[in-house]
Every structure is written in structure tokens, then in C-alpha cells.
Amino acid sequence: MERNGVFIAKDFLADYSAQLGDELSQIQEKIYEETGLSFNIDSPKQLGEVLFEHLKLPLTQKKTKTGQYPTGEEVLLSLKKDFPIADLILNYREIAKLKSTYVDALPKLIHPHTGRIHSSYNQAIASTGRLSSTEPNLQNIPIRSPRGQEIRKAFCASDSSHVILSADYSQIELRLMAAMSGDKTMIEAFHQNIDIHRLTASKVFGIPFEEVTKEQRSHAKTVNFGIIYGVSAFGLSQQTNLSQKESKELIQNYFATYPSIKSFMDAQIDFAKNNGFVETLSGRRRYTKDINSSNFNLRGFAERIAINAPVQGSAADMIKVAMIEIQRELDLRALHSKLIMQVHDELVFEVVKSELEEVNSLILDKMQNSYLPLSVPIVAEFGVAENWFEAH
Questions:
Q1: What pLDDT is attached to residue 61?
Q2: Most buried among 128, 207, 247, 342, by the most CB within 10 A?
Q3: Beta carbons of 340 and 1 less than 8 angstroms apart
Q4: Mean pLDDT across the stretch 283-301?
Q5: What pTM was estimated for this model as a whole?
Q6: Axis crossing angle, helix 244-257 with helix 259-275, rounded to the nearest 10
């Protein structure tokens, strides 16, 4: 992947940079209108004074050690519902970061001889066992926001004889959680290809499957993925529009629906307390040195690692095994298509059009069948297009 590199459309990024620059100017003017002041929005000190002294917004956190008002994302998100200025600043920051970190920076990193960007992938930095990407970090390009997604259009095939193929594991951590916990309800849902988030919503809210609303499904999805990371009632209420009481009930109903998941989580914590580590399905260890700490916060963090590391770590192992097997097969068959990026549960390839059918079937086979046999089906989905955005 490092040697292959990724082709980037410079002209597209130049146009997008100009567009973001215009948007930034417009939002800047709105902020000045809203506050009645002209100030440096990028200065946390000036911004804090404007928000909490001039506009007298409620202070939700203490001042920093240097005596400045806190103006981080968490603070602005907590003010966003009641004060439009907070939303404007969040928007301003998002655009400014996209522009400087990606849109303006990526063209400067194109190698003069290859015409491509060559990221470095690191094996032993992420404690979960996942690969990390640096200089530039290609795994960090935002996907949740429409503006961030636009950047992916610049990642394209180098010429008309190639296409971009993106292959992604479907709900891999949930599938692994189902397999590792042995939860019958969840395993059966994956075998029957039932919408797991809709099923969870139906069970935790006590309503028929067909009557689940979009919002209820969204809450259930947040819980499904949050449980793996040890989400609390407070944490869930922060991520949704549910109250802390509603969030607590939702988590209790979740464990009543999937009792084996609760047993699995408790067993992982007990194992870590007795052994000082937990393991992925492949036997790779993650040490939990604070699991028996008397400090509540340190112990809580270690307990969350004990639950999450085996699941996320097994997903990391699975994709690495698949990558090795895919490369081996590409070499064996003397194919010219190349793996160019890995982004968490997704592999991105630049595929020779004439090889597309063969390569596509090879990739899906290796992603779905290279790891250990599991009690749930492993599903990889793919898309093919001229650029990464359209292929994903």
C-alpha cells in the first residue's frame, strides 16, 4: 500500500479549496453579525471572552489552568441546541480544518516522480492492533459530514483503464460480539439477514418490528455500537436526544434482550482482573494494567478496554489476514490490480477494468473466509466507481 500510493485529482481539490474559502468568509461574517464584534475566531482566548463575557452564555465547564474559558467541541455541542452562535463556530471550525488539513495539504504531499500520495502505515501504534496511517493520515478523512465526503472524490483512478473498488466489512464488530458472546438472538438475526438495529429497537422499545421509527432505529444503532465501548446512560444521553433516565432504561432493556452479551462483558472483566490481559480470537493480547486499580476512573477505563479490545482487536486481525491472503492471490495469478488503502474495516483497490470480475470475487472471498470459522456469517460489501466517494 505504501509503495502503490494513491492517485489524487489536484484540480478538483483546487476548486474545492476556493469553494470552502468562500463558505468560510460567509460564516465569519455571520459570526460577526451574531456577536456584534469583529475578532479572531481562531483564538480560543478571544472566542471565550466573546462567548462568556460579551454574550454571557452559560459556562458548562471550569476555566482552564491558564485562566481561559473552555471553547472545545464538547462545550460548543452542549450550547448548540439553545445558542445558534455555537453551531456557527462548529461549522466554521469544521470548514477551516477540512481546508487546511486536507484540501490544501494533500496536493503538497504528491510525490514528484510517481504523481501519487504515499502514506505510511504503522503496525504497532494503535493499541487495538489496527493499522494506523500517517503523513498523511488517510484514515482520518471525515466521512460523516457532506463536506468531508467531498474530499473523497479527489481519490480517483489514475487513468481510464482503471476503477476504484471499495470493499467494506458489514457491521463487523457487532457480528464478532454476537459470535464471541454466543448470543442466540443476535446470531440468528445475522443468519436471517434481519436489520439488527431495527430488531434491537423493536425489542428494547417493546414495539412490533414493522412499527419501528427512523429515530428509534437510530437510538438502537447507537446502543448496539456503544455497548461494545462500554457506553453509560450519561454517555448515551449525550449522543442522542434521550434523557439520562430513558438512556438507563434503554441499556437495561438491551441487556434483557441480549443477556449473553452482558454475561460476555462481565466474563471479560473477570478474566482481565485475574490475568491482567484480554485476548482476541487469534490469541493476541491487550494488557489491562489498571483493571484492579483503586482509582475509579482508571479502573473504569481498563474495564472498557477489557470488553472492547477482544472485539475490536479481532476485527483488526481479520482484515490483516484478509489483506495478506488477497495480496498472495493477486501475486499468484499475476494480476495488475493493487491494494492502495486500508481505512479501518475498508480496503480500497485500484483495479484494472479487464480484471474487475475476477478481482472482485477474489477480494470478497478472502475478506469473508480467511479468518477463523465463526458462528455468524461475515459479510463484505463492495462498490466500484471512478472515485472513492462514489465507490464507498
A1: 84
A2: 247
A3: yes
A4: 95
A5: 0.90
A6: 90
pLDDT of residue 292: 96
Cβ(312)–Cβ(130) below 8 Å: yes
Spell out the domains of the chain, with CATH numbers in brackets.
Answer: 9-113 (1.20.1060.10), 177-308 (1.10.150.20)
Round to whole Å and give the CA distance between 356 and 285: 38
Dist CA 121 CA 154 (whole Å):
20
Whole-angstrom Cα distance, residue 173 to residue 183?
Answer: 14
**What would the pLDDT profile of 102-134 be if each residue is shown by its tens digit?**
999 999 999 999 999 999 999 989 988 999 999
Q: What share of the chain is helix, strand, coil (3-state, %, to 5)?
A: 55, 10, 30
Contact 202, 208 (CB under 8 A): yes
> Any idea what DSSP says for residue 80?
H
Phi-psi region of 29 (alpha: psi -120 to 50; beta: other; left: phi over 0): alpha
Residue 242 has pLDDT above 90, yes or no: no
Q: Which of 197, 239, 288 is nearest to 74 (CA)?
A: 239
Of residues 169 and 250, more confidence is placed in 169
Bridge partners for 382 per DSSP? 167
Q: Is the pLDDT of residue 185 over 90?
A: yes
pLDDT at 64 (0 to 100) = 85
